[in-house]
């Protein structure tokens, strides 16, 4: 069982930046970030393959968000720049224990952290 602990959410203004962190307690294959806005389904945001560092982004965040990892700290980051009010959501990190599609099943989930972007 892998535990994921997120941090870094908050309230910012449009155009600001924010960085989310997700620390994993064990080995994982892929780490992903998802978000869920009120009344909407949970959506994939970005993912990173732990070994290769390959990344994948949803079109809505491409060019604004960057996912990265720190192997020594077993931590993944989501750097969010040029934030928009429509980025407001609860953000979740999730991990795949083995290979799967970027938007496939994730085995472990964090508790979620709120990101609110005011206009």
Protein described:
The protein is mainly β and about 120 residues long. Helix content is about 0%, strand content about 50%. The chain has strands at about 5, 10-15, 20-25, 30-35, 45-50, 55, 65-70, 75-80, 90-95, 110, 115-119. The strands form two sheets. Strands 2, 4, 5, 6, 9, 10 and 11 form a seven-stranded mixed β-sheet that branches. A hairpin with a 4-residue loop joins strand 7 (about 65-70) and strand 8 (about 75-80). It is globular. The model has no long low-confidence stretch (mean pLDDT about 95).
Topology:
Layout (H helix, E strand, L loop, with lengths): L3 E4 L2 E4 L4 E7 L5 E7 L6 E7 L5 E3 L7 E6 L4 E6 L8 E8 L11 E2 L3 E6 L1
Parallel strand pairs: 2-11
Antiparallel strand pairs: 1-3, 3-8, 4-5, 4-9, 5-6, 7-8, 9-10, 9-11
Query: How is the biggest beta sheet arranged?
Result: 7 strands, mixed
Order of helices and strands: EEEEEEEEEEE
Distance between the termini: 40 Å
Cα gyration radius (Å): 13 Å
Strand content: over 45%
Overall form: globular
Structural class: mainly beta
Mean pLDDT: 96
Could you list the spans in which at least 5 consecutive residues all have pLDDT below 50? none
The percent of residues in helical segments reads under 10%
Number of strands: 11
The DSSP helix count reads 0
Features:
119 residues; mainly beta; 4-stranded antiparallel β-sheet; globular; 11 strands; 50% strand; 7-stranded mixed β-sheet
In short:
The chain has 119 residues and is an all-beta fold.
């Amino acid at each position: 069982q892998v535990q994921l602990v997120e941090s870094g959410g908050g309230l910012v203004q449009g155009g600001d930046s924010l960085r989310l962190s997700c620390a994993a307690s064990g080995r994982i294959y892929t780490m992903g970030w998802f978000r869920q806005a009120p009344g909407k389904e949970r959506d994939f945001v970005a993912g990173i393959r732990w070994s290769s560092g390959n990344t994948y982004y949803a079109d809505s965040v491409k060019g604004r968000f960057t996912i990265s990892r720190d192997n020594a700290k077993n931590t993944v980051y989501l750097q969010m720049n040029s934030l928009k009010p429509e980025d407001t959501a609860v953000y979740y990190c999730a991990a795949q224990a083995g290979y799967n599609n970027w938007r496939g099943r994730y085995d472990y989930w964090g508790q979620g952290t709120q990101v609110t972007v005011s206009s």
